[in-house]
Amino acid sequence: MESKVVEIRKVDAHEAAKLMRGMAVDEVGEKTTEFCLLMSTHMWACFMRGELAGIWGVIPPSLMSDQAYAWLNTTEALKGHEFVFIRHSQRVFDELLEEYPSVVGHVMIGADKAYRWLRWLGADFGTPQGKVVPYRITKHDRKVYGHG
After folding, report:
1. Which domain holds residue 42?
2. Could you tell me which residues come within 8 angstroms of residue 60 by beta carbon, excluding any fewer than 6 positions away?
3. Which residues contact 26 (CB under 8 A, 6 or more apart)?
4. What is the CATH classification number for the domain harbouring 7?
């Protein structure tokens, strides 16, 4: 099975946005994804057998911040390759946590695959807030859970 993760450079964000079209369920989701691509300091794309399986990135609140907000969007091409995606993601997060000691975000309640992905990355989950659950991933937590 051929799989690879590539870092997306800022100059490629528009091309990545084109790849992402059709992944979002509605216009709001598409605009949100484009916003994430434009605001992210680091982005990655995962390909399975040449098809885009997922794209994710981080957005710091400021350029001086030691914390970043993570986002993720996946396609049907990920189906059946979740473990490979998790392994790639763990390697990326090991490097990412060197720059941002804390990565935070929200996961939709009921998004079981996203929840499992975050758990494998060492996420610590907070109290549900409406339709989402906040999480935090730190270098320390990844070592405690044996992921780093």
Report:
1. 3-144
2. 41, 67, 68, 69, 100
3. none
4. 3.40.630.30
- Asked whether the beta carbons of 72 and 36 are under 8 A apart, the reply is no
Q: What is the DSSP string of 87-140?
A: HHHHHHHHHHHHH-SEEEEEEETT-HHHHHHHHHTT-EE---BTTEEEEEEEHH
pLDDT tens per residue across span 36-92: 888 888 888 888 888 888 888 999 998 889 999 998 888 888 888 888 888 888 888
Buried b (16+ CB within 10 A) or exposed e, 10-21: eeebeebbeebe
Count of domains observed in the chain: 1
Query: Could you tell me if 36 and 70 are in contact, meaning their C-beta atoms sit under 8 angstroms apart?
Result: no
